[in-house]
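User: quick one, fold this
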Amino acid sequence: KRRSWTALGAGIGLLLAALAARPVLCSSFAHGANLPVSTENPRSQDVSARQDSSIQAFDMTPAFSPIQLGVVDPNLVWAEGYQKERFVLVRTLNSGRTWQRVHLPVQPPPYPVTAAAEADWKSGYPELYAKNERDVWIAWRDIDKPVVWVEYTHDGGASWRVASIPVNEAASVVGQFAFINARTGWLVVESYGASEQSDKWMYHTSDGGSTWHLVYSTSVDAPRLLAGTSQHLTFRTASHGFWLVADPIRPGISLYQTNDGGVHWQRIFVSVPTEYAHDVTVSVWGPAFSKTSPNQGVLAVAFYTSEPQPTMNLALYHTKDGGATWRYVTTRNIPSEYGNYTFQFFDTSIAALVLNDQLYETTDGGETWFFRTDLGPWMAKRSSALDLDFTNRGTLWLIVNRDASSNEIETWLLKSVDGGLGWSRENANRNEKGRTLSIGVCCCTVMETGDVARER
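Assistant:
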């Protein structure tokens, strides 16, 4: 997932110099070891991880402001955020009834430091990725030196390892992780770029995060390849993957494919309807593929035009041949509205969309959408949705940034257990927690798709 504090789809980045990255291996250490950053020894150091007993009960109060979710199953949810400006990683094992704080070996910088670094185009917020109940990764770019820290656990947070990846000076933002299993994965790091035309570096691990190899980087020789902002990375196998990029400069859909594990990428032609032929993409999601029918997949984009006035349109595409070709799907009941789009697939049929302060749902792969809830009572005038996810068919989690223009962080963690009709605030005072506000009108028939085996 790619998060943004200025979550309006047409947001534009700023310029950093594009420098070529050198191939390196990272250094890896166990929790509790010294953590020097060195590239002299090309071999990573393998130190046995020790058990970490610093998992503690956590009081989910307004002092905690989450910024990203890592949803694993109906009971297990991870969240990263800040409490009194200090970075905090928490988890729940019982769908939010109680929470635990998980202490990391290396503490990411506090919120004011990270926010200032982002404003100066030097760094960004940590990226969280939870693959399953055991395997979790978190990464961020060091503010003082060109290093990306990767902390990871393979036992559900009981113990952690730390890897340091020397990166290009211009590589300032950790984009996204993608893992096909506990050992094989990829990590994208980007620069800030003018009009979001960022440089990108992709690293690969085959040992769960202990060592990372640079497998791909953009260069000044091919400035239009993978131009834009990397937003979604998907690998189906160790060799075959897709990279969906939002490009606010060049019209069309920037979807790329690799067949050699990320070393080489080629753009896939995706037909665009005539009415969007001159529009650019400012937000993209997917591709997501079916677990029961692996050749079936779906992706979504938000087209943007400034003429005659700023307008955005949601569009979805289906594939039945593993992503070789994509068919445009005509969508119904979604307004053409400029603003904040936060999207999440549950499977290839079911998805949810927060469009400004309105929640919509589809059960047929995006062809028909139904209004579910007015989120206005939960959102202030300058609010925006930061993250949206499912734990099962009926349970949704939503992070709302209460004031996107403020220098201080205040986010709300909302939960719905009835498919988005009623919501309660999880990081509320104890006397407020548990109150549910039901304001939506259900216009849809819930359909079982059988696409992904999750508890309803």
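User: anything notable?
Assistant: Confidence is low (pLDDT under 50) at residues 1-25, 29-53, 438-456.
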